[in-house]
Amino acid sequence: MAIRILINLARFAVTYVVATVVVFLFMRLIPGDPAQIALGVNATPELLEQTRREFGTDRPLVVQYFEWFGGLLRGDFGTSYLTRTDISPMVLDRVQVSLILVLTAMAVALLVAIPLGTWAAVKHRSFSGVAIGLGSQIGVAIPGFLAGILLVMIFAVGLGWLPANGWTAPAEDFGDFLRRLILPVVALASVQGAILTRYVRSAVLEVMSEDYLRTARAKGLSANGALLKHGLRNAAIPVITVTGVQIAALIIGAVVIERVFVIPGLGSMLLDAVGNRDMLTVQSVVMVLVAITLILNLVVDILYTIIDPRLRRSA
Amino acid sequence: MMRRKNSLFAAAALATAALLGLAGCSAGAGSSSGSGGETPTTATIALTGTPTNLDFTTTAGSAIPQALMSNVYEGLVELDDSGEIVPLLAQEWSVSDDRKTYTFTLQEGVTFSNGAPFTAEDVKFSFDRVKTDWVSSLKTKMDVVENVEVLSDTEVAVHLSTPSNAWLFSLATPVGAIFTPEGVDDLANAPVGTGPYEVASWTPNESIVFETRDDYWGEAPGVEEVTLKYFADATATTNALQTGDVDAIANLQAPELLSSFEADDQFVVTSGTSSGEVSLSMNNRAAPFDDVRVRQAVLYALDEQAILDTAWNGYGSLVATYATPTDPYYEDLTDVYPHDPEKAKELLAEAGQENLSITFTVPTRPYAQAVSEIVVSQLKDVGITATIESAEFPAVWLDEVFTKHDYQMTTVLAVEARDILTVFNDPDYYIGYDNSKIAPIAAEADQADEAGYVEGMQQVARQIVDDAASGVLFLFPNITVAKAGLQGLPENAIVEALNLTDLSWQ
């Protein structure tokens, strides 16, 4: 098991370094000069030159890359071209917001999806089972931003129950934090819940047809008992994988929800930075996203080994 | 065993109930200032287009001066809501007979927000600094200043190399902002000015909080704290106003969202004028628009009123070029090119361009997207096939259109006040207009007395329109929506500053 984790860590490091190169180069390939954007329509060639020097974008790419990479290793993302402030504390702020949003949404989605999906599988021939299957299919088809806009129209603008947008830090005013969290979480969780319900349903259905469940029942366990004792643990493996992948996807995908609800998360930071060609900020945010994705993969892998004893022996 | 399964269901049910319960509890709440019994002391204004930092001496974009000029920074003079130059930090000024020396008498008892007193030395420091430290071609507006002479603490003389009408006007724009030597260390984050507000906090891309100063020299604003809240799109601003998160929207960018506010007497909608021209720029240096007949044909082909009605719900007004009704030299030239498709076709035939295909580069901005389709369809009626090519704004548009001049036709909102010479009196500007005819007239007008200035600039404007140098689709309106009790938001947006010094609750 230790070797397995070491291999995972090595893979993590290599992937991360490769990602830095790719991200760095891509940012240089897209058109748009940060100095030009900072100066706008008031730029003259001399001023452009001066600003490029100030930003350091006039230096060779290799120099720029290693300076940035060196900073990354020290945990220092550098200074934003445009806001002229340190990027690291800003990113840290934004990560917290995005993680609170996405993890809450994921927790809500799982709380709904696990019982609903299991129920839909166990009762897959009954009316309620079919209804859940159908409902989740519709849920998957509705884009999150549409759900968000509808929720704002009904609960914020129409009924006036909840704020339409904005974000308050939990430490600042916890009540207001919760009120502002509800609509975006519901918007994200409704789509995620539908996706996960379908995964749980098919995972449980698959498990139910396995031989060992029949064996367990033959030994005298009830259908539900056999499923709980032997089935759900196995069904959990694909669900954990998809949850891990979905959390990573959700942090990036939440950008649209962050836009709709004016939430200062990582996604909206990325969007603003790309629009302004604030390269160092874009690179930093992307690398944080890459790190989160890789860490989630690592966690999923480790969870596998815990859930499935066979994997512990095999490595 | 069943117990475990039930507890899962129970947890889910509980979570759902908790969410719904929270929603229920807070019903009816969720309103900030403006709805209570007592007069509020704060105001929150929604804006679209966030400043990237707070330093307009090195960073472009109208968002920074919009927030800071008049509120945090003041100049010797400012523009009132009708476009008139009026005193601010200067009590009065006199001009020498040769029109080259301006002597300003300064307000007394003025301090900066860091406590430093304001004297003539600060004027000298600020004007000199434009030439040495500013990284923006706006700095050229100070080129005409030969030297700044401190006569006493409250008197300063500015010597110009040649007389200049444009220079005094420039003093009302960001280049005229007065700084103190002790307050320029971190302009991007901590601005220090003589205005009635100081920046209490700034969160990039989110908000700026202003607090009024106790030691402000002039009349204090009627609120204690103003928050500028930045939104990515117009719908989010109207939602925020409707749910009470903000008290007003300054310069709403989506007139189609106005209907629900106009019918509701809790809100007041005003539509003033601005200095922002939604241009239809044609590349004068490249085919086919290097032929004046083709440019004129386009202007005959367009029905600007229809464009304004369709794209911007009729809000805004029509002008012929970059001279606007609040400029002293404005004259209505909109009838030079009436909507006349037949005339357009004739001109195209004359130019040998009956079946013209062009590319229309449209920046990714709401106004640009809104006008593009109808412009294309009107051009089609006279035989011009325009293909829309979307250009990400600002990055790609600045790079391709503005810097490399690699375009045929484009549209962009030009917000700067009195920008007609910036745009047309420079053959290297992206429009590429041959300015040989207007340059001498413009130079003479700048040095003339007031009447001569107006007369000369009118001549310039007429020449530009005759040459069909470029079109203006419409003049952007300044649409403001505010809660009924909030007073003092400026109706017009003539300079970039969003002047919040008269804000109060009734």
From TrEMBL, chain A:
The UniProt keyword set, sorted, is:
Cell membrane, Membrane, Transmembrane, Transmembrane helix, Transport
Indicate where this protein resides in the cell. Answer: Cell membrane
Coiled-coil regions in this chain? none
Spell out the CDD domains in the cross-references: TM_PBP2
Topology in membrane: Multi-pass membrane protein
The residue ranges of the ABC transmembrane type-1 domain are: 95-300
- The protein depicted here goes by the name ABC transporter permease
- In the UniProt record, does the keyword Protein transport occur? no
Q: Where are the transmembrane segments?
A: 12-30, 99-122, 134-161, 181-200, 235-262, 282-307
What the entry lists under Pfam families is as follows: BPD_transp_1, BPD_transp_1_N
Q: Could you tell me the superkingdom of the organism this chain comes from?
A: Bacteria
Q: Which family does it belong to?
A: Belongs to the binding-protein-dependent transport system permease family.
Report the PROSITE patterns cross-referenced here: ABC_TM1
Report the InterPro entries cross-referenced here.
BPD_transp_1_N, MetI-like, MetI-like_sf
Look up and give the organism this protein is from. Leucobacter allii
Q: What is its main location?
A: membrane
TrEMBL record, chain B:
Q: Name one Pfam family in it.
A: SBP_bac_5
Naturally occurring in which organism (per UniProt): Leucobacter allii
Q: What is this protein called?
A: ABC transporter substrate-binding protein
Q: What UniProt keywords are attached to this protein's entry?
A: Signal
Q: Which CDD domains match?
A: PBP2_NikA_DppA_OppA_like_6 (cd08494)
**Keyword Signal included in the entry's annotation:** yes
Q: Please give the superkingdom of this protein's source.
A: Bacteria
InterPro entries from the xrefs? Peptide/Ni-bd (IPR030678), SBP_5 (IPR039424), SBP_5_dom (IPR000914)
State whether keyword Signal applies: yes
**Entry-linked PANTHER family:** D,D-DIPEPTIDE-BINDING PERIPLASMIC PROTEIN DDPA-RELATED (PTHR30290:SF38), PERIPLASMIC BINDING COMPONENT OF ABC TRANSPORTER (PTHR30290)
Q: Which residues form the Solute-binding protein family domain?
A: 84-412
Where does the secretion signal sit in this chain? 1-29
